[in-house]
Amino acid sequence: MPPQAKSISSYFKPTNVAATANGAVTSTLSTPEKQKKSTLSEAAKRAIVEGAAAAKEESETTGEPSAKKQKIDSRPAGSIQLEVADIFSRPTTSPSKLPIVRSKSREELKARIAEKPEWISKLSLEVDTMGEDWLLALQDEFTKSYFLNLKEFVTNEQKTKKVFPPAEDIYSWSRFCPLKDVRVVIIGQDPYHDDGQAHGLAFSVRKGVRIPPSLRNMYKEMHDEIPEFIIPKHGDLTEWAKHGVLLLNTSLTVRAHEAGSHANKGWDQFTAAVLKVVTSRLSPGPSIASTTTSEKVPGGKGVVFMAWGAHAAKMCAGVDNKTHLILKSAHPSPLSASRGFLGNNHFKKANEWLQVKYGPEGGIDWKALGAGEDGLSSDQKISF
């Protein structure tokens, strides 16, 4: 396991979860000893610094987040890196202000939050726009101090500055891809920060918007692996989301034209919780494909994580690779695609693994994105 994974993996340590007689789910926190902040060795510190340097090379300048555009943090470099590496162990030390008893519906959760006017003013977006199974699975995060502080920051930004994506699209990933259906997770970093690009799905842009360079390389790799895939003339990946692909950025908002402007504000801690929910599947109801009692936990046989670049690899460092498949490579950006992304065969490998786990129909229908559209033929140059 990579040196930096030691502290990251603590976020994914199992939480004791039990169902009450009425079906409600309760959880117990780990012991105080397990909550103590971990320390990193000198080797781990060097690995994290090297990872951050590599991540800079993965950024793009054509409408995509660029590390060079981010504001310089005045804190000592060592402390920043340690803070980022340790963030996935924090949630267990910041208990929710809601009681342990979990709500079983959107309306029930909304009623409980409404008991605190200062909460409903900050959490109405989550309650009103998030997919219900995600909302219920993540409910303990919403009233933790880090998330309330994050929402106060984002809300103030939205009042005084232009923020992407539009508020109603921040959680579109949860509506297009229900938790119970997730089979593949593709991890991005920042939302696109130019006008009209971001709409809540990592790497995706709305139809009519110029296709970003990274997505062009993803299309190229997809066609090389799956010749039947028709390369679409648009960059809207909604169809993939509907087929079980969670397209998740680790920061869910960004200030217009300022890449990284909402990083280190709390989104990475929340999206780490999203990944934990995916791996533990804390969602109500059985899997749509389950046929036996042993399969009643949605996605219990594991999911595929596509970790492209140093940042995504760090996010996945604590995921159990015995239960889940973690596919790592260079980022698809023009600066690094030729260094390991192109030719990685991740889309094909994902389906082969899913078919072993879930049967012949268990893979992702990647071809659905370009099906029935006037896409590019196999002999056309990918240029947009």
Rg over CA atoms: 20 Å
Q: In whole angstroms, how far apart are the ends?
A: 40 Å
- What structural category do the secondary elements indicate? alpha/beta
The overall pLDDT, averaged over residues, is 77
Task: List strands and helices in order, with pairings.
Elements (H helix, E strand, L loop, with lengths): L4 H5 L6 E4 L5 E4 L3 H4 L6 H17 L18 H10 L19 H9 L2 H13 L2 H6 L1 H4 L2 H16 L2 E2 L7 H5 L7 E5 L24 H13 L12 H5 L2 E5 L4 E2 L11 H14 L23 E5 L1 H6 L9 E5 L16 H13 L26
Parallel strand pairs: 4-5, 4-7, 7-8
Antiparallel strand pairs: 1-2, 3-6
Helix pairs in contact: 3-4, 5-6
Pfam families: UDG
GO biological process, one term: base-excision repair, AP site formation via deaminated base removal
Enzyme class: hydrolase
Please tell me about this protein's structure.
The chain is an alpha/beta fold and 384 residues long. The protein has a domain at 164-283 and 299-358: Uracil-DNA Glycosylase, subunit E (3-Layer(aba) Sandwich), CATH 3.40.470.10. It has 15 helices and 8 strands. It has helices at residues 5-9, 32-35, 42-58, 77-86, 106-114, 117-129, 132-137, 139-142, 145-160, 172-176, 213-225, 238-242, 267-280, 310-315, 346-358, and strands spanning 16-19, 25-28, 163-164, 184-188, 245-249, 254-255, 304-308, 325-329. The strands form 3 sheets. It has a 4-stranded parallel β-sheet. β7 (304-308), α14 and β8 (325-329) form a beta-alpha-beta unit. α3 crosses α4 and α5 runs antiparallel to α6 (117-129). It starts with a helix and ends in a 26-residue tail after the last helix. Residues 1-11, 14-40, 47-63, 65-93, 284-298 and 375-384 have low confidence and may be disordered.
